[in-house]
Amino acid sequence: MNQPLKQTVKPATYMSAANPDFPGYDVLRVLFAGESQTSPSHRLGPKIYDFYLFHYIEEGSGVFRTEKGTYRLRSGSGFMIEPDHLVSYESDPETPWRYRWLAFSGAGAKELAREAGFSQDTPVVHGSSYGPIPEALGSILAAFREQQEGAGLAALGYLYLIMAEAKRSLVSGTANTEGEAHIQRVVKQMIHYMTSQYAYPISIEEMCSGLGYNRAYLSRVFKKGTGMSPVTYLLKLRIDKARYLLRDRPDLSIEQIAASVGLTDPLYFSRQFKRFYGEAPSTYRRSVTRG
């Protein structure tokens, strides 16, 4: 009778390196980074840390425990440990995990973790073991071990990349595309895009393409969130900006003002201005600059 093949457990390894730069205790900084192939049932804790500590699992599986929950994790998962909270984590006895990690602290550390979507209620992210997160963690470790010039600054860049990728994974894993929070987020993205781009002759189609949504969906959620269509909102934004220029920049012609708010046709600009405010741009200018 054939015996089942026994899985080979890889030998345990450990490597860590500290940030060779020291910008100060109050500055956001990556403290150290590392990687390890753990031994079966390798356990840390229960214990607390005084910094943020993020692990990302490349292979194997294990359990992460916090004061609020227990999470069984495997390749492609990451977990965030927050300062002053009791945690423990243990690799599986048969498929011990191999993970990479980094620690960070300083001004804005908590805000960065929250911006990425991590909290005591959401300490875990699920992604890909071959994505940008493990690569970034490996790059930080290499820069620290080699004591590269500017390693601390490079580590900060990688930290933001890691948190951005974690945020994408958390949002895609939990977002309800019809939920109120998601709609508000999309509307804010659209308003920010219009506010920064109104001076250019952008179209709604270009905006939808830039944000990665189809026009029908964006129009629907935007109207639900603001009460007006994206076309109307963008046009009103341009006309309101033009009112400011008509009042405060008498040296500019009507044509120059129209071009400055992304409307290249002065006649169209005049018609739309009258539509919103009941008078021609030239009439409005005379009324606000008298005296």
From TrEMBL:
Residues 188-287 form the HTH araC/xylS-type domain. It comes from the Bacteria. Keywords: DNA-binding, Transcription, Transcription regulation. Gene3D superfamilies: Homeodomain-like (1.10.10.60), Regulatory protein AraC (2.60.120.280). SMART domains: HTH_ARAC. GO terms for molecular function: DNA-binding transcription factor activity; sequence-specific DNA binding. It holds the Pfam family AraC_binding. This is AraC family transcriptional regulator. It comes from Paenibacillus yonginensis. The lineage of its organism: Bacteria, Bacillati, Bacillota, Bacilli, Bacillales.
